[in-house]
Amino acid sequence: MSLLSAISVSASGMAAQRVRAELLVENMANAETTRTPEGGPYRRKDAVFASEPQGSPFAAVFQTEMAAYSTGVGVAEVVEDTREPVRRYLPGHPDADADGYVAFPNVSPAEDMVDLMAASRGYQVNVAAISAVKDMIQRSIDLLR
Fold first, then answer.
1. H, E, C per residue of 6-26
2. Number of domains in the chain
3. What would the pLDDT profile of 100-116 be if each residue is shown by its tens digit?
């Protein structure tokens, strides 16, 4: 794997973690949303990662000739939680049913916060990897002087 391919792989990891973080923030922001345009309470969303071939735009010609592709990560799909919503007894709520229960999203802010910290750490690791590759490229250039 070339150094430019390593940067491309880390960049794909950063992009995937960014999407994951956006979904987690959306989940936390909608933890109390009982009515959506689709009807019913908000449904928690999760990103599903999958491996994807990565290519460096700078080395595209060499990769095509040598068939030297590296594998990165991408978001394969965004899935919605299919579990039943949490029901709370709030008879005065505008979205209460005939029995006085309101359907709330099945979102755990504590769980999502832990997942958000993990996404942030994953992003930081990819930034560190890109920085290490950048340093290796710089040292290689210095050796050739």
1. HHHHHHHHHHHHHHHHHHHHH
2. 1
3. 999 999 999 999 999 99
